[in-house]
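My convention is simple: the sequence line spells out the residues, with the fold written below as integer tokens. I include a record here:
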Amino acid sequence: VQLQASGGGLAQPRGFLGLSCTASGFTFNVNHMFWLRQPPGKGVEWIATVNPNGGTAYSDSVKGRFTVSRDNDKNIVSLQMNSLKPEDTALYYCARDKRGFQRGLGTQVTVSS
């Protein structure tokens, strides 16, 4: 199983960033996929789920600001992040499970003016 997230970087408060995750080594189109994040000094937290048919769920902390989607033909799961806040600063991971036992290396997102 390989999960490679990309697209992180520095954004200003109220700005936006888009993350992508390319998956391989498993049957992508039958798996739920997850985005998690780990803020500095804190544990890993779940933020978004997309099911094989595109249905979504979000944590309260990102609901209404973040949008998760997937492309089953390209084995890609994406996270569009809008209205970013400093508290969104974290290492972001895509994962095959909600707790992150099977997750990639992650991509850093920093929100700061």
Notes: The radius of gyration is 13 Å.
